[in-house]
Amino acid sequence: MSEERYIGAIDQGTTGTRFMVFDHDGQVVANAYQKHEQVYPEPGWVEHKPQEIWENTKEVIDAALTEAGIGSEQLDAIGITNQRETTLIWDRESGKPIHNAIVWQDRRTTDRVEQLQDEGKEGWIREKTGLEPDAYFSATKAEWLLDNTDQIKLQRMRPDDVRDRAEQGELLFGTIDSWLIYKLTGEHITDVTNASRTMLFNIHEMDWDEELLEEFGVPEAILPEVRPSSDENHYGYTDADGFLGAEVPVAGALGDQQAALFGQTCFDEGDAKNTYGTGSFMLMNTGDEAVESEHGLLTTVGFQRSGEPVKYALEGSIFITGAAIEWLEDMTLIDDAAETEELARSVDSTDGVYFVPAFAGLGAPHWDQRARGTIVGMTRGTRREHVVRAVLESIAFQTRDVAEAMESDSGIDLTTLRVDGGAVKNNFLCQLQANIVGTDIARPVVDETTALGAAYAAGLAVGYWETVDELRDNWHVDSEFQPESPGDVEQRYGRWTDAVERSLDWARDGGE
Question: How distant, in Å, are the alpha carbons of 54, 284, 431 from that of 416?
Fold first, then answer.
């Protein structure tokens, strides 16, 4: 009897790293997770330690395989999914980062983005990249690293500066997928979805854009090779003499939100999903067409399989949702996330309280880098239950903001929204979401769809799965929530819009 074969997936997220192993039915057979440190050097700055992420990656792979009794030689392939936009630069020869990674939430380059806006370059950037100029994306982060990293951080006593070494190709730029591919295989590669989030990549020509590289002073010599998300040629192989002890192909990579789109089997035009993580990200497959948004959404690459055309997507990026629940814990209003459902149900309403979680500015469809977190409508009678319910409602309201923009841009009415991520375990939130958006909410049995999408991409590349129809057959609904329309939904949504207005443009003149 032959031993079982599996596909592994590294899911490197904002707060931690997970390794999951899936079987042919798309079921989880191994799972391990490790958090990493969040570094806040200054207000509005967020960094991660790349070496810590790599060490954690090795630990969770080892822990998952050991706990499940699976040998590394039983892995047919490994896929990678990652927090997008988070940027690092490392030394090609030593493999050492020149600085901590700058996280997608980081706002240190806000002034640089406003300079681009003042120079009238918004439309120019949007036309090439599909992105709204924002400190969220990688371009200004890479520019900052090249301009501000002290030479001593390079671990070498060299007279030349960081930019000179970058021009010579002695340094390498990447998002977290590139960093992990490099550490696993020694190859400097990214996939089309992650490249499309850098604000350096032309999504129509599907190549690094020379004019954007010049604008941000990013040398072409430091850029990774861009490959399909599911690559039959493989990105590389793990070292048989390395920590894994086997030569396993690394054959798939997608940014986390595109991975969730893939894992939710949104392969057809009009399919949509929303992932509730640190932030929430709603994507709709628009097929072969890069649909330009007129309502504050992003046009992005959805995925690409070897030898096939790129599939595009519309995306609504909501910066803070799950992180708002973490904030409730930080403020000791709750002990853990699971408590929010009971507390929210214990009151009939928020009693007029509205919470706008603009801790890192507001993303789609508002795009205000200087918006800040706001609570309005409190009275002396406001209790923590009202605030907790207002936080959950803010997640649902932000999703409606994006859903309305998406329907307007695409001309497609949402009938069902597939959901995933940690917060969808909360039945109250799922029902609230159905009520506020006015569409069915479908929660799948396997809700770790981000890791599943990376596994699917790698597995298709090596023939573990032959067709996407096999993947569709793996998708099963756990629960479906249909809209129940309380009469006050529209009134509450109107008041939410008023609350958002009060959060806008706050962080000025020392308002950070």
Answer: 38, 11, 13
Q: What torsion do the CA atoms of 261, 262, 265, 267 make, to the nearest 10 degrees?
A: 90
Say whether 85 counts as a known binding-site residue.
yes
- On whether 33 is known to bind a ligand per the annotation, the reply is no
Tell whether 148 is in a known binding site: no
130 labeled part of a ligand binding site: no
**Residue 322 marked ligand-binding:** yes
Residue type, 97: P
CA distance 315 to 193: 12
256 is in an annotated binding site: yes
Are 408 and 294 within 8 A, CB to CB?
yes
Say if residue 241 carries a ligand binding annotation: no
* Rounded Cα distance, 307 and 466, in Å: 15
For residue 136, say whether it is annotated as part of any ligand binding site.
yes
- How would you label 203-230 residue by residue, b for 16+ Cβ within 10 Å and e otherwise? beeeebbeebbebbebbeebbbebbbbb
Residues 6+ apart with CB under 8 A from 488: none
Burial class (CB in 10 A: 0-12, 13-18, 19+), 510: exposed
Per-residue confidence of the chain (512 residues) as pLDDT tens digits?
347 999 999 999 998 999 999 999 999 999 999 999 999 999 889 999 999 999 999 999 999 999 999 999 999 999 999 999 999 999 999 999 999 999 998 999 999 999 999 999 999 999 999 998 989 899 999 999 999 886 545 455 354 588 888 888 999 999 999 999 999 999 999 999 999 999 999 999 999 999 999 999 999 999 999 999 999 999 999 999 999 999 999 999 999 999 999 999 999 888 889 988 888 889 999 899 898 888 889 999 999 999 999 999 999 988 888 899 999 999 999 998 889 999 999 999 999 999 999 998 998 899 898 899 999 999 999 999 999 999 999 999 999 999 999 989 888 888 889 998 888 888 999 999 999 999 999 998 877 889 999 999 999 999 999 999 999 988 888 999 999 877 789 999 999 999 999 999 898 754 45
The reply to whether 467 sits in an annotated binding site is: no
- 3-class secondary structure, 13: coil
| Residue 14 assigned ligand-binding role | yes
